[in-house]
Amino acid sequence: MDLLNTLVEKGLRRELPSREEALAVLTTSDDDLLEVVAAAGKVRRQWFGRRVKLNYLVNLKSGLCPEDCSYCSQRLGSKAEILKYTWLKPDEASRAAAAGVAGGAKRVCLVASGRGPTDRDVDRVSQTIGAIKEQNADVEVCACLGLLSDGQAERLKAAGADAYNHNLNTSEATYGDITTTHTYADRVETVRHAQGAGLSACSGLIAGMGESDADLVDVVFALRELDPDSVPVNFLIPFEGTPLAEEWNLTPQRALRILAMVRFVCPDVEVRLAGGREVHLRTMQPLALHLVNSIFLGDYLTSEGQEGKADLDMIADAGFEVEGTDTTTLPGHRGGGGCASACGPTDSAAPAEAEAASARTDLVTVRRRGAGTDLAPNA
């Protein structure tokens, strides 16, 4: 397929595809799906070989958020029956992080619900970062605390944080339909705050919220321009009790096309398969490893993921390997010491998108273990 050959060539040169080419990936047919995955896989292997980076989430403060993000089970007015608790103490968070590290995680992501941290919150998180680094000096720590005020990114950096996550989530044109309590521009500003402080920026999207193909391409092109080191791709988890509970419109094939498009547009960044993979990719998850080079291990913020051992078995069975702490994730030209070219080998008409998948509410399991409970975490 000429389109895929062109996209592979551009990906190997780190050249931005056209909007039309990116849109065309999303409208390829299911008959061409394996060809799309194979093509994007060439780009993935060029920059990251067969390594998979494992990340582990620790939810420092769950629920009771004053923001109205329609996709979120922790939002203002959410009726989702999730765990709700206030800030974990540094030693509690450190123990939770240690479980993920023991399971093979290279990065620990510290997340707290809310609009953004107060200065006291930054102090709390700084203490937690110190406790984690004291136990595991080589682990990367990423903070995700919402909108940042002036100077807060610098304080997190000084405390030992390596990265900061703040997702764009959807296109600028449709952002107001998803959230009204803050703006798309607020999110962009926070990512730039993090970059300005010397933190590795992590910013991605949520697919499956009813957006159009054009919206998906818009947000991924915006991320390419913003140039984060990591791009998490989340697939909406339609929690009962949230405004988007009925948005069951992703198929495994659609999810794979979205991941391929992101890889072609962002060829040399850490593309992370994030929340919702078990719900929407299901048994097709191993194919996604040919597109992404990073996943979350175990559970998410308010929902449970598949068992950590199952994640590790999937990686091994698919012929990939877990990335160790002695390996730099990003290629050398992005400031890392990892792969470059040495990592790997150097009918376009599409039918209408398949009908929306039937709701599989049985696949959404509210987290009842790990941080904030007396039960052991999933790692």
Task: Walk me through this protein's architecture.
The protein is α/β, with parallel strands linked by helices. 36% of the residues lie in helices and 12% in strands. It has helices spanning 2-12, 19-26, 33-48, 90-102, 119-135, 152-159, 175-178, 184-196, 213-226, 252-265, 277-280, 285-288, 308-317, and strands at 51-61, 107-112, 140-144, 163-165, 200-202, 205-207, 230-235, 270-273, 294-296, 321-322. Strands 1, 2, 3, 4, 5, 6, 7, 8, 9 and 10 form a ten-stranded parallel β-sheet that branches. Helix 10 (252-265) links the parallel strand 7 and strand 8 (270-273). Helix 1 (2-12) packs parallel to helix 3, helix 2 packs antiparallel against helix 10 and helix 9 (213-226) packs parallel to helix 10 (252-265). Residues 344-355 have low confidence and may be disordered.
